[in-house]
Amino acid sequence: MQESSAPTPAPPLPGTAYAPTDRTVPTRSADRASYDKETVHAILDDGYVCHLGFVRDGAPVVLPTLYARVGERLYVHGSTGSRPLRMTGTADPGLAVCVTVTHVDGLVLARSAFHHSINYRSVVVHGVAHDVTDPDEKRAALDALVDHVVPGRSADSRPANRKELAATAVIRLDLDEVSAKLRTGGVNDEPEDLALPHWAGVIPLRKGYGPPLPDPDLAPGTTVPDYLPGH
Questions:
Q1: Contacts of 204 (CB under 8 A, 6+ apart)
Q2: DSSP states along 85-101
Q3: Side-chain half-sphere of 3: how many Cα atoms within 13 Å?
Q4: Model's pTM, two decimal places?
């Protein structure tokens, strides 16, 4: 899958976008980069799983996990026994991390194998993560994590008790060094390939929800709440 080179994008307007840095300006297809906060927030809010990268004992580690955005912060969920959560509690001034979120929106099939690609939306966040220790912030972060999966769900479930809170860890990462990257549109075949007898185009991929499947042990009289997707 080939991406063409492009000039570095113009600096963003203050307050509406993140400032580009050496780590957030792509070396390829820089025209696809965006630092617009609204674009970044929309991509983050539309996902469920992020990939959390960090270095442990000199080697890179990347873990998939749940996350939620609250304003200009990301909260990442984990167990108190997991490696990144242990490291944020001992590192000073925190743990250097890279968080990524990616959506695949379409498969781009070109006439040539070289120009096959995908349509996508992605966000990359660099920064220093910190363990959330304040009880009120931790509860609010856990509510946000639940509501990020299904909006309104935290108010319709039992809150974590003291034992569960002790077994659950949350790390906080400020949205400061951030970029989005997107590819949209169709096929970019070479002009001399347009007459080739191969089908070319885009196969869209869409997120969908099936009907809720009730747990067999639901209490009598429990109905499907209106806020559930697919209901």
A1: 105, 106
A2: HHHHHHSSS-EEEEEEE
A3: 18
A4: 0.86
Question: 87 Cβ partners below 8 Å, 6+ apart?
Answer: 54, 56, 95
H-run or E-run covering 122: strand 117-131
Give the fold, CATH level 3, of 30-204. Pnp Oxidase; Chain A (2.30.110)
Mean pLDDT by 10 residues, the chain (231 residues): 40 73 88 94 96 93 95 87 59 84 97 96 96 91 95 93 89 96 96 96 93 93 88 66
CA–CA distance, 22 with 33 (Å, rounded to integer): 13
73-79 and 95-109 beta bridge pairing: unpaired
User: How far apart, in whole angstroms, are the C-alpha atoms of residue 118 and residue 2?
Assistant: 10
Q: What is the Cα–Cα distance from 113 to 133, expressed in whole angstroms?
A: 51
DSSP state of 23: T
Residues near 206 by beta carbon (within 8 Å), at least 6 away in sequence: none
Domain positions in the chain:
30-204
- Using CA atoms of 55, 21, 133, 58 in order, give the dihedral in degrees to the nearest 10: 10
Cα four-point dihedral sign 26, 28, 29, 31: positive
